[in-house]
Design brief:
Chain lengths: ~300, ~300
């Protein structure tokens, strides 16, 4: 059979083409090495220097000075707390609503194709555009709130972006708007791979709707949920565009995540040395998070089986 | 003819089974999800999704000073304001140049690498795969400083090429993994048949794999286009004169003005969203398989 043929067929060709795969991956490997791996190394180096592009006279080696500054910087610690809050709330809500949306769209109903296209559309919208749209929605002069107040519902108020507490939820809703489709898309793909037979035999055994969801759907979705929450958590951690443009990290730095703090150090303050030290902190957190998360998942699985 | 590759799927098979319409019996099936349980949550969710889209269209097409909830009478004055006055014609052109070059380079390089990953087994393959996966975790914001330094040393600051390079590198790993998946799905027997007919690796690939790969290439290019079109931080950091700005950067400057012209802002937003919506409409049927191939199955 095919198994017997396979090694014999490719063998002479394989010897001749020993270097071909390396040549083929060389462009990709080279680009990634030069523009992703080397920069990570250079961040380590810069983090030991005072390095400001617009104040070159004070540049020089400072040893661990930037790290000392960082540990004493209350804004750094506040940004860590806010980052955790942002990631947990965003990923949690996106997962719940994304799962619900995927379950609904997985049903057969009239208008399914068009509903799916419309529901997933915000996935393609950029962070800056999301800001543009939601700024129009939130503004006291152009927003929904003003029209509701015109109609006698609620009061003419201020923008929810003006206060720290409401600014957080305003940003959360805007990000949910374009984040839910990501989960829905990934979970829907996995839902479609569940065999109908499983549900049918469960029905024969008398399992109700929730029982079927709990015992068939959720266990099947396990891997997809784990991987998509991990990817999304990293993505929301890294997400700077929306917060940079919508709240600018404010009011009063209340919505500044660590990567946003880094971006503002780099773009606005041009403090490359201190920015690099903050970047190192970000890398350590990302690495710890990923390892811990995958470890927790593995522990959970071992206990289950 | 040197190649005798058979078409992969018979396209001329007539539909044998007639489409089963909804029968009365199924309507009354108690096991079927009740319709309200589908349409009510769906309607609520679509309201949440579509009202913001409607809002930006409303402000873009409505006359200044009007408070109507319908953009009537329609006006295009805001579009001429952003296109000519605010410089969006230049920003749009820059965004198109960057996106087209990024799509070309990332897809071409992904095609080479993806073929190697799909069709060869070689020492270091696993390592390369892990490397590609790990790069997905690297935040763009954290690469701003070191990339700025590289581009400054190579005199690419304020050049569109800096963005092309950065976007290509950041999108390449995903394109490559998707491409490897698409190539793996094409039976190797087709290529082997071409080799038996005397084709080399390249000719066999061009004759058998490439034509079947077209949907995959379109999907991968579309993902790269959307990611490049939407990129903001790199363009904000590496481009500093107004004639080099991209659409998102131009939009962000309008957002930052003290007295925002909401009509013009909304029109700018519509200009920014039209290309991605067109591409999205085309690829949304590949979206489910495309994203999951890249993100779930690795």
């Amino acid at each position: 059979m095919a198994v017997l043929n396979a090694p014999a067929r490719g063998a002479p060709r394989r010897r001749r083409e020993r270097w071909t795969p390396y040549l083929l991956i060389a462009p990709a490997g080279l680009l990634v090495a030069v523009f992703l791996l080397y920069p990570i190394g250079s961040v380590v180096y810069y983090s030991l220097y005072d390095y400001n592009v617009i104040k070159p006279w004070s540049n020089g080696f400072v040893g661990l000075g930037n790290y000392v500054t960082m540990f004493e910087d209350s804004q750094f610690w506040r940004s860590l707390v806010f980052t955790a809050q942002w990631v947990v709330v965003e990923v949690g809500l996106q997962l719940v609503f994304g799962l619900a949306l995927a379950l609904v769209i997985n049903e057969t109903f009239v208008g399914r194709a068009i509903a799916r296209a419309l529901a997933f559309a915000p996935w393609a919208v950029s962070g800056v555009l999301t800001t543009t749209i939601w700024l129009l929605m939130y503004s006291p002069t152009t927003g929904i709130g003003r029209y509701l107040a015109d109609a006698g519902i609620g009061t003419y108020g201020t923008s929810p972006l003006a206060e720290a507490g409401s600014a957080f939820w305003a940003a959360v809703v805007a990000e949910l708007w374009r984040g839910i489709p990501f989960f829905a898309i990934l979970i829907l793909a996995d839902l479609q791979s569940i065999s109908r037979d499983l549900y049918e035999s469960a029905e024969v055994d008398g399992a109700g709707r929730f029982r079927r969801f709990w015992s068939i759907t959720l266990p099947h979705l396990r891997t997809a949920i784990i991987i998509s929450t991990l990817l999304r958590a990293v993505w929301e951690f890294n997400n700077v565009d929306l917060l940079y443009t919508l709240t600018g990290g404010g009011p009063g730095n209340a919505t500044t995540t660590l990567p946003l703090y880094v971006a503002r150090m780099a773009i606005d303050a041009k403090e490359f040395g201190y920015g690099s030290a903050l970047t190192m902190a970000g890398f350590v957190i990302l690495a710890l998070f990923s390892v811990t998360y995958l470890w927790l998942v593995r522990v959970g699985r071992d206990q289950n089986s | 003819m040197t190649t005798t590759a058979a078409p992969p799927a018979a396209t001329s098979v007539p539909p044998v089974t007639p489409r089963v319409g909804r029968t009365r019996g199924r309507e009354r099936d108690p096991r079927r999800t009740p319709r309200w349980a589908i349409y009510v949550p769906l309607a609520v969710y679509l309201l949440f999704t579509l009202v913001p889209f409607y809002w930006i269209l409303l402000f873009a097409f409505r006359e200044t000073g009007s408070t109507s909830l319908f953009p009537w009478p329609l006006t295009l004055e805001h579009f001429s304001t952003v296109w000519n006055g605010a410089g969006f014609s230049v920003f749009f052109q820059n965004s198109v140049v960057i996106a087209v070059l990024t799509v070309f380079f990332s897809t071409a390089i992904a095609l080479l690498g993806g073929y190697a990953m799909a069709r060869f087994s070689f020492r270091g393959k696993g390592l390369f795969m892990v490397l590609m996966l790990c790069t997905q975790f690297i935040p763009g914001a954290m690469m701003l400083i070191p990339l700025f330094d590289i581009f400054r040393a190579t005199f690419l600051i304020n050049s569109l090429w800096s963005i092309v390079v950065a976007d290509t590198v950041f999108h390449l790993p995903l394109s490559l993994m998707l491409m490897a998946g698409f190539i793996r799905n094409i039976p190797i027997e087709l290529e082997e048949a071409a080799w038996i007919d005397g084709c080399g690796r390249l000719r066999g690939f061009l004759a058998t794999v490439l034509p079947l790969l077209r949907p995959g290439i379109v999907a991968i290019s579309s993902f790269a286009f959307i990611s490049s079109w939407n990129n903001f931080l790199f363009a904000l950091m590496f481009l500093n004169s107004q004639d080099k700005f991209t659409v998102p950067v131009g939009l962000s400057y309008m957002l930052g003005e003290y007295s925002v012209d909401f009509g013009a802002l909304a029109a700018g937003g519509v200009v920014a969203v039209v290309p991605v919506v067109l591409v999205f409409a085309y690829i949304q049927r590949y979206l489910v398989q495309g994203l999951s191939a890249g993100a779930v199955k690795g």
